[in-house]
Amino acid sequence: MGKPRSVTLRHPSTIYKQIIPVEGRVSDGSVRYASRSEPARKARHLQLDLFESPRNGGGFRDPAFSENKTQPLHRWVPWIAGFSAQFVQDCFETFLTRRRKSKPRILDPFAGVGTTLVQALLNGYDAVGFEINPYAALATKIKLNSAKLDLERLQGYCREYHAAVNKSPHVLERLRPSDFETRIPFFSPSIEKQVLAFLDFVHAIPDAGVADIFRLAFGSVMVSFSNYTYEPSLSSRPGAGKPLIEKADVHNVILTKLREMMSDVRWIKERLAGLPSVGEGQIHSSNFMQSAELLPPRSVDLVVTSPPYMNNYHYVRNTRPQLYWLSLVGSPKDVRHLEEQNFGKYWQTVRDRAPIELTFEHLELSWTLAKLRQTREEKGSYGGPGWANYVAAYFNDCYRALAVLRRLLVRGAASVVVIGNSIIQGHEMKTDLIMADIAVQVGLMVQGVQQIRTKRVGASITKSAVRRGDVNKANLYESVVIIRRK
Fold first, then answer.
1. How far is the CA of 130 from the CAs of 67, 258, 296, 448, in angstroms?
2. What is residue 378's three-state secondary structure?
3. Other beta carbons less than 10 A from residue 51's beta carbon
4. What is the pTM of this model?
């Protein structure tokens, strides 16, 4: 691919009035805009102005996922991103208290490990989610079905496992994933022998529900006794300045996790038994953009979600150990398919393509993209041109997702979107405000944008106050974007 032609850019304010959507679509279907006057500028930086006041009294709480580490069910799987169960509960109490429907349907288009869906179930609501990562989808499915597990049978298999591992069990070498490659051995030899013994045991469990909870227990702890570590991206322990793990009691670690999970299964059975009605939970291991085949129009009463941030955190690659060792993928081709289907794409999948254009009109974003393409232009796909493709692909997917969301929401229903800004090659992308603009373009109403975290850390952020120099003074923050169906 040849070097892009260099052009001289002028700020949009010198060639046209900056414009923003203010009242959505008018009768002819076009989007009405206001010029960027001082009142309009203030209007765009919205504060949360809800018809319902948040039940906690002062807006939404910090949604940090770390709170889930101590909550039943939510604590089963460590996850790099997401929000807390309490944040989801705040959303339910804020947006569902005045709705008359006895059993609303809750949607999370980017379900992760199921915080929104599990919390919906605990309130007796119906829940549906989409998650393209098979490991995260498996975790969510098991959580949603946990109340249906036969606890006595699960306890029986735990006792069997405890007894079997002390009898020098036969190891099925074929259970080692042949296409899983790492720079150094993922498990040390003595540890891998125990892992294969565990998989051998699980392979013989005829009850699919019990086998799945065993597999999830293993997936949630496997990195802890491997030669790799999350920092937060998956990297070798030596690369992070940590020693290799030569020996570990793998069976005891897994059994400890299983005991925790059994305790939570008992808890959720008691919790749901006390509800006047029990909701149904579904998770689809597929791309949300394909939801038209699975959900009817105007069937969702509330959305609580957090799409992948524009930080190039590689969820697929960072869960490769779980995907391969749990037989959720079988080859690099399967992994590539997941990468290409991922929301927002990854920089690695779009950087070498011809310049990707926006599929919608947004003058400010177009201006920023043009500036980004000229940043470190000599680096080609590793400089501004490659990163501009990543940004354009991300916001094109935002446009598609919000258009799908509009079709699914019932009239007046809210969508609560947690999203953070990004700093790419020194250029700040106010993702929350751009997403609000896009929502208006697809015919939704933006009720407000509230910043809920004024400082956070991030990955793959270059030339900012956060990482690699002090070129851009902007900080990373996190916002809640409140969108409604008219």
1. 23, 26, 15, 25
2. helix
3. 12
4. 0.86
